[in-house]
Every structure is written in C-alpha cells, then in structure tokens.
User: Which sequence fits this backbone?
C-alpha cells in the first residue's frame, strides 16, 4: 500500500498534464491556445498530430525573446566599442557618421541610414575572426549594463518566452532564432541565454572569408534577415516550413504568414509590448519594433497577440 | 545458470565493442583509425572526450556520399529537364548554350563556363516554388537511370559511407552535408538516402524570393559552397568548427583544413576513387573530383585517405 502511494506520488510529480509548463503566464485564453496547440500536434491520436521531425518553431529575437529598447542591444555594443576604440585612437574617426557614433548621437546615426550604420558596424564587426568577435561580445555582455534597468543585457530575456522555448523542446520541437540581428552576435549568447545552439540561429550576416584555418569577418552586409528575408532565410537554412512562428513587429509579418500559410495546424504568435511599468510600451509608432499590420490582421488570421501586461505574470527571470 | 548465460548472450549481442559498426569496411588501418577516433571522443574518461553538442561531422556529397561520374548527377537532371522542355516547346532554346544543353553536348557546355551553366540551370532550377522544384527532382529520381550502371541515381550511394553516417549518429554526432551541389536539390533526397534532414544540408544556392506564402526560386547563383566557400558556409550555418570532415576532391581541402586546424582531436577523411571495377577510378586529372593537394599533403596532415578498392568490401547498398 505504501509502495502504491509512493508510485502514485511519483506519477503526480512527473505527470506533464498536472504540472504547468508555462508558470509565468497568467491563466488567460492566450496561454490555453498555446498549450492546446502543442498538445494537439504532439498527441499521436490527434488528427493534428505532427511528427517530431516537422516540429519546427521559429522566433524573432529583439523584442520577442529579449528587450530592444531604447535601441537594439547590438547597436549599443557597436557604439560602446566604437567609443572605446576612438578613445584609444581618435584617428579612426574619419567621417561625420563615425564621430556621431562615438558620441552616441543616435539622431545623426538614424539620419545616416543603412550606409551610415554599416560604417559604424564595420569598426566592431569586421577585421577579426568570428571566434575573436564572439569573445569580445561575451566580454561586453559581462561588463555592460542597460541604461534604465541597470541589468545585464543577456538577463533582459523574457521569462515567459524562456518557458515557452523550454516547453516546446520538451515536446520534441526544434526551437530556432530567426532574427534581423547579426548571426555571429546572437550566437555569442544564444546557448547560455536560451539553450539554443549556434546551428539553430539564423540572422543577418556580413561577408566572411576563409583564411589559414580561420573564418574572418569582413565589412558590409550580405543577407538581411528581416521582413521577406525571414522566410527566405528559413527556407535556405532549415529547408522546411515551421509550424510555430513568434515575433513582435511587422518585420515578422512575412515569417508568420509563411508559417501559417502551410497545410495542417499552424500557430502564429506576436508579443505586443503593452507593459510600460515592467518593460516598455510601444507598437504602432517609433523607430523600433513597429507593429501595425500584425495588430490589424493578426487576430483575423488566428494569430495569438500576447498582451504582455495581461498575459505575463512575470517579465524577467528571477 | 541458464538465466546468467541468457543475460550474457544479451550483453554480447548488444555490446558496441563486439558488433562491427562498419561491416562494409575491410579490416584495414583506415577503418581502425576511424573507429579509434570515434571511441576516443565519445569516451567520457578519455582526455580527447568531446561533448555531444560539439560532435559535428561534415561531408561533401558528390563523390563522397554518392557517385559523380560521368558528370554531376544534378547536371544530368538539368539536361534531362531542358531536353524535355525543349521537345515540348523548341522556342525556349534561345542560345547556343541552351541548344548544346538540349543535345547533351557536354563539351560545348564545359566550354561555356559558369555563365553557360547558369543559363542551363535556370531552365530547371528557377521560376517555381522550392516545393515544386523538389517534387520535380523526386519525380526525376524515380524515373531516371544512370547511363552505365542503370541504377537509380539515389541508389548510387556508398554503403560504407552510409554505415559511417549511421555509426556517427549512433555515437551522438550531427552529420551534415556540405556540398557544392544545390541545397534544394540535395534536400530532395538527403532524408531518404542518408537519413539527413533538410536543416543539416548546406549547399550552393541561388537567390530566392518570398511571395504570397511561398519561397520562389530565381535564376542565378548567390553562394558557391565549394573550396573556401565550404568553411564559410559551415561558419554561417553551423557556427561551430566540426571535428570530422570528409570529402573526395581539392574542393574539400579548405573544409578539411578548417576542421583539422581546430584544437583537440580532429579527423579528416578523403575518399580516393581507386576502384575502376566496382565504381570509377580517377584523381589527379579530369573534369570532376580532381584530387591533387589532398593526395600530396593529406597524409602528412594525418588525414585518412580511403582507398576504395582496398578499404571497402562493398561499394553499393544491396
Ligand atoms: Ca523584433
Ligand atoms: Ca566532391
């Protein structure tokens, strides 16, 4: 009898049906929708069953898995490095845009468009091996702190999304990052921050060159993994249409459309930044994470629009 | 006693040390080198132990996993499709190179260089969705037969290499294809032929475009996954230096060099086509699979040079 009770206790403790896979999510309809979807595609007796090989979930990074305000964290890294290099050797500031960058003058940088941005990025993002670059990114993550939260940048990851990634992996999904950010930059922390290995990170990429046993980073941009570039990147790298896609801006619209246009069960998720108190509130306007079409068309397309303030009981990890 | 014997029999039957993971390989030094390497990197008590996350093995495709004579099988596909389309509509033959292609005139095609080849490839490799293209490749594989062996092209895979792939996966390796062939082409059969899923295939790629829920193939070439392009592709897609690389030509030299230049245990493998009787014999000369530098420098670099005639007891699957 005691043995039986003991067995029952073990069953209770380990039964997935009785433990909450998303404890930081409030008990809202969005949470139920996500869990019902995962349960239906992983239940072999369900008509919506999907074999493990096809359980591909893709997620945007900036604003979906970690913060992106006041500007993309990768830009803060680039400006920090530009500033430090200019202090050591002011002669590197050979243009107005580089001088603006070293002064952190975001307005001038924004006015400089993509070309100006690439000039700034070139200082920190080229002229070294991929390994050296990633070691430098990790050094920066160790020392840098966010201007308003004073947190480590790689600690500003959304606890509810970490739980979702982990839940999906427990249910046999591959969890991929498909980000407009730089692929080498994201890989420097994706494994420690998200448990996502380098081979499951897709991002924007500059040219590289193989030289004497090393892959070297060159200036410029080869592939922009944003908007229509996201399905293109997914096809090129994964070669399969995902069944779950999560994002937070109209830069993710094509990815969610591509994902949910496939046959069979599909889930689109948009994180709507509604929580000025615990994080940031922004959507239709601004210079980052603009979300218009997703809010207008997402609900009719059956996409889950996550309301951060209402759906998430906790934002940051403890 | 009988129970004990029975247990012992089960142990014998399932013990990895006593079953041969590479039965089609003869008992040669090359086989022992490969097995010793795998055993040392997977033995947690070994100083050469490598964690499963870093057990990345990359393999060239043409001439390494499947045949490549008399010409790359992908070119035969392109010419077959060009010919069929020209029969249905001769007006598509708008240039000398296309006319040569439709006639299977390999000499003129070779003289046309990359530009001519791209013109031929464009007919069968662009203007449709990725899914439609891959369905067509699979149709072709079902109907086409090799000119001298009369085998299905996707049956002309090397049994010893299938065993090596399977052995590596059993030992916790990821097995990737890194091929100069087209990524969409290879993915059409990699899963059925090699048990390698689409997301572990890296190949040359033309531009694509996202349109209304589909990824469409466009003419041209964006990335050539050959020579120095192979380490570049590996870095871009996998983001990690492999510990095993296998190839068969000097197009794989940079990949093997990059792989074996890393710290810790590394294994380079070159398949040397020495078996005119069961397959084809070729190396230093010719238009395909040329192997000079690998033969000259490989042994000093500690790379395994597989002698097909001597090392393989069987070439094709039964
Ligand atoms: Ca975003
Ligand atoms: Ca080859």
Assistant:
């Amino acid at each position: 009898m005691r043995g039986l009770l003991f067995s029952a206790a073990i069953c209770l403790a380990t039964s997935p049906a009785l433990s909450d896979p998303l404890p930081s999510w409030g008990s809202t309809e969005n949470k139920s929708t996500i869990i019902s979807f995962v349960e239906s595609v992983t239940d072999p007796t369900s008509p919506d069953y999907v074999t493990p090989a096809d359980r591909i979930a893709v997620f945007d990074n900036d604003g979906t898995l970690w913060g992106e305000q006041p500007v993309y964290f990768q830009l803060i890294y680039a400006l920090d490095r530009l500033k430090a290099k200019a202090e050591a050797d002011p002669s590197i500031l050979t243009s107005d845009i580089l001088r603006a960058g070293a002064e952190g003058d975001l307005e001038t940088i924004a006015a400089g468009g993509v070309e100006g941005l690439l000039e700034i990025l070139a200082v920190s993002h080229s002229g070294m091996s991929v390994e050296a670059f990633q070691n430098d990114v990790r050094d920066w993550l160790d020392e840098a702190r966010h201007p308003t939260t004073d947190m480590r940048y790689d600690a500003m990851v959304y606890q509810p999304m970490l739980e979702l990634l982990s839940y999906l992996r427990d249910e046999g999904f591959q969890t991929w990052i498909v980000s407009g950010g730089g692929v080498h930059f994201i890989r420097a922390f994706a494994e420690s921050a998200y448990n996502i290995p380098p081979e499951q990170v897709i991002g924007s990429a500059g040219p590289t060159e193989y030289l004497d046993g090393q892959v070297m980073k060159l200036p410029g941009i080869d592939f922009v993994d944003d908007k229509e570039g996201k399905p293109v990147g997914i096809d090129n790298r994964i070669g399969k249409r995902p069944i779950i896609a999560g994002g937070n801006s109209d830069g993710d619209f094509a990815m969610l459309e591509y994902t949910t246009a496939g046959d069979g069960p599909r889930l689109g998720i948009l994180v709507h930044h509604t929580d000025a108190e615990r994080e940031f509130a922004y959507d239709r306007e601004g210079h980052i994470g603009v979300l218009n079409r997703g809010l207008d068309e997402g609900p009719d397309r059956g996409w889950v629009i996550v309301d951060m303030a209402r759906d998430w009981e906790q934002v940051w990890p403890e």
